[in-house]
């Protein structure tokens, strides 16, 4: 297949595998990279990612490899699908391998913990703007995308033509991609919703009911919008798929690892026990610290985020955290 119809997907977890499957369905030659032979070799042998995305067979136009150079050399476009805490590491690994016109896209959600940078800022620092592509984000569970169920998400880039091209390349009759120029807003929505989802899971785990969960979601959106405004995002972005859409999905369904973390914490489990039970990275745990630090630095009131931070990092009891939220001074909406 011609190189201009090829994609390297870097990260063979559940979401990376699901996006590789979607790209394969739109007639791309996909090179799926993972750094662990213990994960990639069974995937090659079984033609299925049985650990991260069982039940979704890999078609012939997906090639799995641990050879990063090979994956990139055979691809026009690159899509990084790794947790936020290793994004910089992967970018530094691919930097000497990139060709001049290759664009690097990413589906990473979260702030970099030490620097407080959003993913596109990390990409710019490591690679420069010449290789910056698009951020891919929205209300999508890997299992459903992998199974080919109807889904929609947002693709954002400062390069309008590039965003349209990537959206067209990924879309078909059951997968729809919308474009945006608000990279910052899309990334903030994708990062902070994970923190709010932990709160929503905790709320349900404590048996507080649907009213309380919806209050958490709605007031959580207000926190996202306050942070977004301070960081230069467009308010309308948070009403879209990558904002409200992703927030509602992540807070409402137990496919969400962040929601399950909240449920586990409300049941009295510690972070390590809950993480072991969930088995995959829970982005909201690191995001709670990064967002709390950002809110403090910028002087933004984010009470739900603050209480989630205290539960995770200061051992505050979830019941007490919700009491703190309900006893705050009354104010206008």
Question: Which features would summarize this protein structure in a list?
Answer:
333 residues; N-(1-d-carboxylethyl)-l-norvaline Dehydrogenase, domain 2; eight-stranded mixed sheet; 8 strands; 12% strand
Description:
The protein has helices at 14-25, 37-46, 68-73, 87-94, 119-127, 142-146, 160-170, 183-205, 210-230, 241-252, 257-266, 271-278, 283-298, 303-313, 318-326, and strands spanning 6-10, 29-33, 62-65, 77-80, 103-106, 132-137, 151-156, 175-180. With 333 residues, the protein is of the alpha/beta class. It has two domains: 3-181, Rossmann fold (3-Layer(aba) Sandwich); 191-326, N-(1-d-carboxylethyl)-l-norvaline Dehydrogenase, domain 2. It is globular, with a radius of gyration of 19 Å. The termini are far apart.
């Amino acid at each position: 297949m011609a190189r201009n119809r090829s994609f390297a997907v870097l990260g063979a977890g559940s979401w990376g595998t699901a996006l590789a499957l979607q790209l394969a369905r739109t007639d791309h030659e996909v090179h799926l990279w993972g750094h662990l032979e213990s994960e990639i070799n069974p995937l090659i042998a079984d033609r299925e990612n049985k650990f991260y995305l069982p039940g979704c067979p890999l078609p012939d136009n997906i090639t799995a490899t641990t050879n990063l150079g090979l994956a990139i050399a055979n691809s026009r476009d690159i899509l990084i699908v790794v947790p936020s805490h290793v994004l910089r590491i992967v970018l530094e690994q691919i930097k000497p391998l990139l060709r001049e016109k290759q664009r690097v896209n990413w589906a990473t959600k979260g702030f970099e913990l030490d620097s407080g940078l959003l993913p596109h800022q990390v990409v710019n620092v490591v690679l420069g703007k010449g290789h910056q592509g698009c951020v891919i984000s929205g209300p999508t569970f890997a299992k459903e995308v992998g199974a080919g169920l109807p889904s929609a998400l947002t693709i954002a880039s400062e390069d309008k033509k590039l965003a349209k091209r990537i959206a067209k390349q990924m879309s078909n009759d059951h997968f729809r991609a919308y474009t945006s120029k608000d990279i910052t807003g899309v990334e903030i929505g994708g990062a902070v919703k994970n923190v709010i989802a932990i709160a929503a899971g905790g709320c349900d785990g404590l048996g507080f009911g649907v009213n309380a969960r919806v209050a958490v979601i709605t007031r959580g959106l207000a926190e996202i919008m306050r942070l977004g405004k301070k960081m230069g995002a467009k308010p309308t972005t948070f009403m879209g798929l990558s904002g409200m859409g992703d927030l509602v999905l992540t807070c409402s369904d137990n496919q969400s690892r962040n929601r399950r973390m909240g449920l586990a914490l409300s049941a009295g489990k510690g972070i390590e026990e809950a993480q072991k039970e969930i088995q995959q990275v829970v982005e909201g745990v690191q995001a709670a610290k990064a967002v709390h630090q950002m809110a403090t630095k910028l002087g933004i009131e984010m009470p739900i985020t603050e209480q989630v931070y205290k539960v995770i990092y200061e051992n505050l009891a979830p019941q007490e955290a919700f009491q703190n939220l309900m006893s705050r001074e009354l104010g206008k909406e």
